[in-house]
Write a structure and sequence with these properties.
The protein has 4 helices and 7 strands; from the N terminus they run ααβββββββαα. By secondary structure, it is of the alpha+beta class.
């Protein structure tokens, strides 16, 4: 029986109880970037993209809670600029990330390049290159909730 286990790579790792806040924020941004990528892919193929989420509603007749699957509207982070170029802004919550000092958008060029640019941004996020910008946006968002 141990011969089969010897074919696996075993390690002495422990599951952490809670992820660090920075990793949680990075994962949140990665989920949103993935949705934007799916939206861009659907747009290139001429399809409509509307993911669904489960929502809980009160039934009008009985008053009981009912869970329904409803479509969710995804706001695109990309738009066409004045010169016909496609621009992409990365958002965290309601704040746009400042990628460089004073620069909040990426000039994608043509619509066909959008998916490749989103893949590059996803890879940069996974590598932690946007951690400082995510932290800054997170602080700004939290300050908006203080009285």
């Amino acid at each position: 029986m141990t011969a089969i286990l010897n074919t696996l790579k075993l390690t002495a790792a422990r599951k952490t109880r809670a992820l660090p806040d920075l990793v949680k924020r990075r994962n949140k941004l990665l989920v949103k970037l993935g949705e934007q990528r799916l939206l861009a892919a659907a747009l290139n193929e001429g399809r409509h993209y509307a993911p669904t989420r489960y929502r809980s509603f009160a039934d009008a007749d009985t008053g009981a809670r009912v869970v329904k699957e409803v479509p969710v509207r995804i706001k695109p982070w990309f738009w066409t600029g004045e010169k016909g170029e496609v621009l992409l802004a990365i958002s965290y919550g309601s704040k746009q990330l400042e990628l460089l000092k004073g620069k909040t958008a990426i000039d994608v060029g043509e619509q066909a390049n959008l998916i490749a640019v989103l893949d590059t941004v996803i890879a940069a996020t996974r590598n932690g290159e946007l951690d400082a910008q995510i932290e800054s946006a997170s602080v700004k968002l939290r300050d908006g909730f203080k009285k």
